[in-house]
Design a protein that fits this description.
By secondary structure, the protein is α/β, with parallel strands linked by helices. The protein is 45% helix and 19% strand. The protein contains 17 helices and 24 strands.
């Protein structure tokens, strides 16, 4: 009794399974299938894109079929007999699995299917990534190298058969030849480039057939089946009035794929010949453009025709769809060959191929950029760890260096201060000693009236010298600290110069002639008249000290190109050695042997004023009659005052006046 209770449920479960198993096997056998035969590896981008899109369309439209994918691994046209045999075996295998549709991806798979000579009854057959032209594959003993098969129109061949359809690409040879003639009317030779693939041989057959319509053009075949060296030699031997039409260029005579730059190397054999493309090959690299198919996937079209069969139960509605053709050109090559866009056929598409490639491979570029960013982040992290270990040491070294620099600057500042105080003390002590000494002598009652007057004059002169020194020290200090405010206004430089000449008349030695040279009677610029006068007075006073005979000339020149006014003071004194001409603008600088009275600050003040107004001052090295100082003052001086800009410009009021002499 206990055994019945234990084994009874198990036996009933096994009996139910035996009853259900035949039904499930029958349902599995009755489920229909769709066979996809790919010419190449189905994992390639184009094939996998079609398969994924097709599967989504089939599922979305509710077609009750299983999808199976097989590949022929086509490469060398010499393996064509094996393609046909593989196709026959695949059809036989899947016909026993309720085969409802066959999809042939690529020209090799489609041609193998057509060359097989039998079409499965009641099965829809579709082509994709194939062309309307083709060739019947060779027998087993055919030599591929010398094979010149005739072209076949697949569309007209399949019109008499039911259940044949799909997507076909059309290559229009005539349109491309007419395009070449429209752009290069002088062309008398056209070279067609093809390779050792089914696509290359079938295109060559189509070109030979179409060339019957162009008896005035010589056709030159550049075929990789003859060997890569022979193909390069044939291309290099093309005469000047030639053009090139590209078909395919992927596989060589030995069945191996060409390198990526193989097509560019071939074209470089004869770079002065224009290159066009009938398939799109080379556009974006070596080809100007061409009349090419607008390649489509066809997944949605084929899925809809299969869905129509399940809706109506008829396969005679299956049909071919031809891809649209278009004129496509590379903008970079058009510019290189100097072809204007208006010379192209109407409706032409001109693409920036570089941008198109970036868009096409944007996913891979994003992955590459992401990888680079991660690598950079890793390197940054490692560098941060490395720098962190060195941070304390570097901080100590930097602080030590900063202390050294600060100490050197302090020592230099102290030395400059000491030198300035020493120079200033020396310059002040000289007039002060004279003032104190002669003031004491003036207290003596034994002095005559003439001696007292002489001593009084010495005290007055040294007092003026001391006052000038103090004024110069205050001026240069204020100029260097930026505490002096310049009062800009429109001034007549001719009047300023004449005023300066009169002001410095007492500084000239007896017998020295003063000259004023100016090409205009009036010229106005925006400047600070007081500071401009100060520069000119210092220069004229300096010239007066060293000129005992001859002349002193104040000149004014208007430099139109440089937009400057050039003030010059030339004298006939001893001059300045070339190696000392830059030193005279230093503070308290006096040349060796210079016993003339002065503070040594006048030229330093001139240079500081010149820098502030945006000008320049220098000693003319080419002047040999004495010394000549030049001060360049800008004509168009932009003044910022209270947030406003004001521009001053020179105004000429007279031309070619006589040069006055004073």
């Amino acid at each position: 009794m206990s055994a019945d209770r234990l084994f009874g449920p198990i036996l009933r479960f096994l009996a139910c399974c035996m009853l259900l198993l035949p039904g499930s096997l029958q349902a599995e056998e009755s489920r229909e299938s769709i066979l996809v035969i790919s010419s190449y590896n189905p994992d390639t981008r184009r094939m996998s894109s079609f398969i994924n899109d097709f599967e989504r369309q089939i599922v979305a439209q509710g077609v009750p079929c299983e999808i199976y994918v097989e590949t022929l691994e086509c490469k060398n046209i010499g393996d064509a007999p094996q393609w046909i045999s593989q196709t026959d075996n695949l059809l036989s295998r899947y016909e026993n699995r309720g085969l409802r549709a066959v999809i042939l991806l690529g020209q090799e798979a489609w041609s193998s299917f057509v060359s097989l000579g039998r079409f499965p009854q009641g099965v829809m057959c579709f082509s994709c990534f194939a062309s309307s032209n083709g060739i019947m594959l060779p027998p087993r003993d055919s030599s591929v190298i010398c094979w010149r098969p005739p072209t076949v129109d697949y569309r007209s061949m399949a019109d008499s058969l039911a259940g044949i359809g799909g997507m076909l690409n059309r290559y229009d040879i005539r349109r491309n030849v007419e395009l070449i003639r429209s752009l290069y009317p002088e062309v008398r030779n056209v070279a067609f480039v093809s390779d050792n693939t089914y696509g290359g041989i079938s295109l060559q057959a189509l070109v030979r057939e179409e060339w019957k319509h162009f008896p005035d053009l010589k056709l030159v075949l550049v075929d990789s089946r003859e060997g890569e060296e022979q193909a390069h030699a044939a291309y290099a031997a093309l005469p000047p009035r030639s053009a090139v039409l590209l078909g395919t260029w992927r596989v060589g005579r030995d069945g191996e794929y060409f390198m990526q730059r193989s097509l560019a190397d071939l074209v470089q054999e004869n770079p002065n010949i224009p290159v066009f493309s009938v398939t799109g090959t080379g556009i974006g690299d070596v080809a100007l453009g061409g009349y090419v198919p607008a390649y489509e996937s066809g997944a949605a079209l084929i899925a809809s025709q299969i869905r129509e069969y399940y809706r109506t139960g008829r396969i005679d509605s299956t049909h071919f769809h031809m891809s649209k053709d278009r004129y496509l050109f590379d903008s970079r090559k058009l510019s290189e060959w100097k072809i204007a866009e208006y010379a192209l056929p109407r409706g032409s598409i001109v693409e920036d191929t570089v941008a198109a490639k970036l868009t096409k491979y944007s996913h891979y570029i994003e992955m590459l950029v992401s990888g680079i960013v991660l690598l950079v982040l890793l390197l940054v992290f490692v560098a941060w760890l490395f720098l962190r270990t060195r941070r304390l040491k570097q901080m100590l070294e930097e602080r030590e260096g900063q202390l050294v620099v600060a100490r050197e600057r302090a020592e230099e500042s102290d030395m400059l201060k000491s030198a300035f105080l020493a120079n200033m003390s020396h310059e002040i002590r000289t007039p002060m000693n004279a003032i104190v000494g002669f003031s004491s002598l003036m207290q003596s009652e034994e002095l005559t009236q003439e001696e007292r007057a002489e001593y009084c004059a010495i005290v007055v002169n040294n007092s003026e010298m001391l006052l000038t020194l103090l004024n110069d020290i205050l001026d240069i200090s204020s100029l260097e600290c930026g505490k002096i405010r310049f009062n800009y206004a429109s001034e007549d430089v001719v009047q300023v110069c004449q005023h300066v000449i009169m002001t410095t008349a007492h500084t000239r030695q007896e017998g020295v002639e003063m000259r004023f040279e100016c090409p205009v009677e009036s010229f106005r610029i925006v400047t600070d008249a007081h500071r401009l006068s100060q520069v000119l007075i210092n220069l004229l006073t300096n010239a007066g000290k060293f000129t005992s005979r001859g002349s002193i000339t104040l000149g004014v020149e208007i430099d139109g190109e440089g937009e400057e006014v050039l003030f010059s003071v030339a004298d006939t004194g001893p001059g300045i050695p070339h190696d000392k001409q830059d030193m005279v603008f230093n503070r308290f600088e006096k040349l060796d042997g210079n016993k003339k009275k002065g503070t040594g600050l006048g030229l330093a003040i001139c240079r500081q004023i010149a820098v502030i107004v945006g000008g320049r001052i220098w000693v003319d090295p080419d002047y040999t009659q004495g010394a000549r100082f030049v001060f360049a003052h800008p004509v168009n001086l932009v003044v910022h005052e209270d947030g406003e800009n004001r521009e001053g410009g020179g105004i000429l009021t007279a031309q070619n006046p006589a040069k006055p002499s004073i």
